[in-house]
Specification:
single chain, alpha+beta, six-stranded antiparallel β-sheet, five-stranded antiparallel β-sheet, rod-shaped
């Protein structure tokens, strides 16, 4: 495909090209904005749905582990109710608990294994809960930023002097192995006061707690937060511990970078904008082709018009197409040809007028007329026969041939039949060479013309002359 770049100098071509490109780009742009807004909303919604499911699953797992730990501690407390603390089998508890202490009614704690656990004196509600055979779950400030999760049960709820079994749940058992967590998903567990019981970076417990505190008091919810320049989304799910463990709620938070949720959008964006760019390039190429097919013939017609203005009627406008531009070029060329002939005719008439005014040589004037006639009508030869005013049957014939040599003036006669034939065909008639020789009585040996167009000159109803043009 050949493109000529000069047509882009036209303001119309540049404007049309701009309109074509904009007409292709604007719909793509509107479609892209609508798609990305909707896709962004849907992907974020999907991300929140996945995080909500992850937080609910993790919350259920934590609660089940607490229930299993409670069952294990109840079994162990029953076994220890009649034994000494030194005989507590650590192998029963080591994978679930990090330490176990037995507390007497006088609040003296003895370690069954691990460190001695300091337990606050239970209030009346906690004592009543323990006497019903239930467990109490509390969290305490531990070394560093860790918090201890303590599970308390009565060894014999029916005893008057109730002894307590206090176990610290092992964090590795309670919170699970972080290697098994979903990809790029962080979890955090907060207590009722939004203090972190367990938290993975980059979650910031204080900031997350402040966000959750501003939300309606529902059992689950969603939020977004920012760490520096990185955006995050998060969902939370509550664990209700009040009925079984007389503890306030725990809040399980699952969070991930917003870029992870929007990852498919970024991948699709590369493909989408690549297709947009390719489409615009194709539209531009097709537009340039179409504009060239429009503007190049138009420029040639404009150039032809300029040539007409400078009296150049011979150069044709070349437009090789079968559409309206081709028809327009053909009409333009035909018009130029007609204008050229009319211009030559006017030039000839003007020259004849000047010759008549400046010269008295009639033969010279007639010769110029014949040369112009032969040239303008592309004839092989041309002649003018002038009828004698005093003797209508006598004529003088002036002729020029193909070699433009001046022929001698010949004298002849018109028969009555010839004059009648000419007067009957005032618009002219075609005659063969033999008919021409008999009617006009002229010598045709100096020309190769075989067909003659004969036009009578009528003035005031009288035949005053004849113009003949010969063609091969």
């Amino acid at each position: 495909m050949k493109l000529e770049g000069t047509f882009l100098r036209s303001k119309v071509a540049r404007r049309v090209l701009l309109y074509f490109v904009l007409s292709a780009f604007i719909p793509f742009l509107v479609l892209a904005v609508l798609y990305f807004v909707q896709a962004n909303r849907m992907l974020l919604k999907q991300g929140h749905t996945q995080l909500q499911a992850a937080s609910a699953t993790y919350a259920t797992a934590i609660y089940e582990r607490v229930l299993l730990a409670n069952q294990l501690l109840r079994n162990v407390a029953g076994e220890l109710s009649g034994r000494s603390a030194s005989r507590a089998p650590k192998e029963w508890l080591g994978r679930t608990f990090r330490g176990l202490s037995l507390v007497s009614p006088q609040s003296r704690a003895v370690s069954a294994f691990g460190d001695v656990l300091a337990v606050p004196i239970p209030d009346e509600a906690a004592m009543a809960h323990l006497r019903r055979g239930n467990a109490v779950l509390i969290d305490q400030e531990g070394p560093g930023q860790d918090r201890k999760i303590l599970l308390i049960r009565a060894m014999n709820p029916l005893a008057a002097d109730m002894r307590l079994a206090v176990a610290e749940i092992d964090p590795r058992y309670l919170w699970g192995d972080t290697e098994t967590f979903p990809y790029q998903t962080s979890f955090c567990v907060l207590n009722e006061a939004f203090i972190a019981l367990f938290c993975q970076p980059p979650i910031q417990p204080k900031a997350i707690g402040a966000l959750i505190a501003q939300l309606p008091p529902y059992a689950k919810g969603q939020f977004s937060w920012q760490d520096g320049r990185q955006e995050f989304i998060g969902d939370y799910q509550e664990i209700f511990l009040q009925s079984n463990f007389l503890a306030m709620r725990w809040i399980v938070v699952a969070s991930q970078p917003e870029a992870v949720a929007l990852g498919p959008l970024a991948t699709f964006g590369v493909i989408f904008w690549g297709n947009v760019l390719l489409s615009i390039l194709v539209v531009t190429l097709l537009s340039l082709t179409q504009i060239r097919r429009t503007m190049v013939p138009l420029e040639r017609l404009i150039e032809g018009t300029r040539r007409l203005g400078s009296n150049d009627f011979t150069t044709k406008v070349e437009v090789a197409s079968a559409d309206e531009f081709g028809e327009l070029a053909g009409s333009f060329n035909a018009m130029a040809t007609r204008l050229g002939r009319q211009f030559d005719t006017l030039t000839t008439l003007s020259k004849i007028d000047r010759a008549i005014l400046s010269e008295l040589d009639m033969d010279r004037i007639v010769e110029d007329v014949l040369l112009r006639l032969r040239e303008n009508f592309e004839a092989d030869c041309a002649s003018i026969s002038v009828v004698d005013h005093d003797s209508p049957e006598k004529v003088r014939t002036y002729a020029v041939g193909g070699n433009a040599a001046r022929a001698p003036v010949e004298r002849g006669t018109f028969t009555a039949d010839t004059r009648a034939m000419l007067l009957a065909n005032t618009q002219g008639l075609w005659m063969g060479a033999e008919a021409m020789r008999r009617a006009m009585q002229v010598d045709l040996e100096s020309t190769s013309a075989q067909q003659f167009f004969t036009l009578p000159i009528i003035w005031k109803g009288q035949l005053v002359g004849v113009v003949c043009l010969g063609y091969p």
